[in-house]
Methionine--tRNA ligase, mitochondrial
Amino acid sequence: MLRQCARWVLTRTRAGRGCRRYSSCSPSASGDAGEARAYFTTPIFYVNAAPHIGHLYSALLADALCRYRRLRVPGSASTRFSTGTDEHGLKIQQAAATAGLAPIELCDRVSAQFLQLFREADISSTDFIRTTEARHRVAVQHFWGVLEARGLLYKGIYEGWYCASDECFLPEAKVTRQVGPSGDPCPVSLESGHPVSWTKEENYIFKLSQFREPLQQWLGNNPQAITPEPFHQAVLQWLEEELPDLSVSRRSSHLHWGIPVPGDDSQTIYVWLDALVNYLTVVGYPDADFKSWWPATSHIIGKDILKFHAIYWPALLLGAGLRPPHRIYVHSHWTVSGQKMSKSLGNVVDPRTCLDRYTVDGFRYFLLRQGVPNWDCDYYDEKVVKLLDSELADALGGLLNRCTAYRINPSGTYPSFCAACFPSEPGLTGPSVRVQAEDYALVTAVATLPKLVAGYYNDFQIYKALEAVSSCVRQTNGFVQRHAPWKLNWESPEDAPWLGTVLHVALECLRVCGTLLQPVTPNLADKLLSRLGVSTTERGLGELYFLPRFYGHPCPFEGRKLGPDTGLLFPRLDQSRTRLVKAHRT
């Protein structure tokens, strides 16, 4: 039998103050705080092991959201993006001892690996924070002092289950037994499967139980506070269950690698409270200027740390007199060939190897195109090659190559659009009209693409945004194939206007798609837009007007020289098929 459920022995050694009502208001999804400034964060990553593709996926999601925001609201001063490493706690203390290192040596080594990975992956963060920094210690101890001054901390005896791997306490309902290495049943976390041990010690305790109603009110008033919706509902369900007070410190004799409790060196601040405050540290807390960035904050997190970010963190913020974050975007995990990644299985995928093998933009595209936040996604090498060859090399790269090749576009310009060949009203007839009904469907699809993509980004469905872009690329290829410009003659008075129009429409489609791909594949999009002759000042979402000549307006690109040809947009990864195609052509 498992022990009886964990219990609080409320032997208070510091008198708590009277109960207080906490406001749970936060800006709406379109509120001023969310529009004037935006602050994106990844989790800070634990340094007990080297980074894997799950860590990179979190960073890429945040990076894409941040880059999209910068395209929509130009000016770097209005957008911030932080990532970093979580370097305190029992796991770090134990891992360092096992490796024969001082904890800070282990932290320096692994934190550098995360920093290097994110640089190589073109993560455009404005801050990389480490919880061992002096600025963070100041922020955490100040935050602790605010909670204490507001009567939300007391000392008590905690007795219950503790999971060192997850750095959290667990109620009885979240503990089960599994057969261990010795063959005996061992208590483990029901959610993570990690071992737990029974713990009894005197800690500081946060009055979490007072915050059920404020948290419910916050979520009720802000239906998009947690996205996707199933995770929002999961948090509401948790709030229907018992919400016991939360231990927020450990004995220093047991956990010395952390930030000491102010005024009580016998206690170390709980690693999760320490870690969560990093989001405030980055924007200057406790200096007054931090309020210009808080709560205009979007946290991007994995589903395994949802409770810490959607219950503990908002409650701690409310307790400190601050508002919860603007939004919490939650994603699921990556498996490898159907199995969970684990060191014991030897199937942990090294993201730096993938960046080298598939190119930086290629692997960014794969993870964001295939990753679906609502459920776990599977990785295997063949899937990466197939997707990138199909969508980047063949469809997108092939289309660009077709429309800019000397044989079809010998002048190397953005050709003119002929309204007589492609009238804005479907069904018109005349000697010059060459347009077909399907062509109007393409115009509608690309014209509405920016708004469609905006909605997907707002709903944290970047994979759907990429799917929509890919669909328009396919439709544009169909348009080019349908009208076969290689069969038309620039010297023919009948062919030339239509040939120019076909290329103009195709290049306009490429320009829109390239602009919308910038948050995901920044270098590839830059190469594409540069080839089209689109300057860096013409790549924002505010300048994204599709096919203006169709609507009777001038086109600034018409007649402009194309940019230099720098080679294939994205070379195929499966060279065996490339060789077969070449052999067939010869």
About this structure: The CA atoms of residues 401 and 568 lie 8 Å apart.
